[in-house]
Structure to design on (130 residues):
C-alpha cells in the first residue's frame, strides 16, 4: 500500500470552518489526511493566549510532523470568530506572528497562513516558501 501523506492544520474549533479547511488542504496540498489542531481563535491563542496552550499546540504539531511525516503546517484565522472577535486586519497581524512562531520551532516544514472570509472562502496570505 502506498504511504499516506499528511499535512497539519492549526484551526479554530468553530464547526463552520472544518469542512472548508479540510477541502482546501486536500485540494491545494494534495495530501491524503489532515491532522486537525483546534483551539477557539487559534491566532489569538498563539499570540496572546496562555503559554500552556501554545506548548500544547507545539506538542500536537510535533506528533503530526514526526509520526505522520507532515511537511506543511497551515494556520487558519476566520471571519466572525467567537474566540477572537476582531477585524480582518487584526487577524492578519496575529496570523503573521503565528507563522513566525511556527517557523521558530524549526520543524522541516513549509508554514502557511490563511484567512477564511464570511463566505467560507479560503485565501492564502502567508507562505514561508514564497
Ligand atoms: Zn473561530
Amino acid at each position: 500500500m502506498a504511504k499516506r501523506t499528511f499535512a497539519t492544520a492549526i484551526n479554530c474549533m468553530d464547526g463552520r470552518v472544518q469542512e472548508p479547511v479540510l477541502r482546501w488542504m486536500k485540494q491545494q496540498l494534495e495530501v491524503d489526511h489532515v491532522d486537525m489542531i483546534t483551539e477557539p481563535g487559534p491566532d489569538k491563542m498563539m499570540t496572546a493566549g496562555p503559554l500552556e496552550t501554545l506548548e500544547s499546540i507545539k506538542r500536537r504539531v510535533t506528533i503530526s510532523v514526526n509520526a505522520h511525516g507532515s511537511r506543511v503546517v497551515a494556520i487558519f484565522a476566520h471571519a466572525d470568530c467567537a474566540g477572537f472577535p476582531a477585524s480582518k486586519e487584526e487577524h492578519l497581524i496575529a496570523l503573521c506572528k503565528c507563522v513566525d512562531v511556527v517557523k521558530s520551532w524549526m520543524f522541516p516544514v513549509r508554514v502557511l497562513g490563511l484567512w477564511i472570509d464570511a463566505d467560507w472562502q479560503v485565501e492564502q496570505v502567508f507562505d514561508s516558501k514564497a
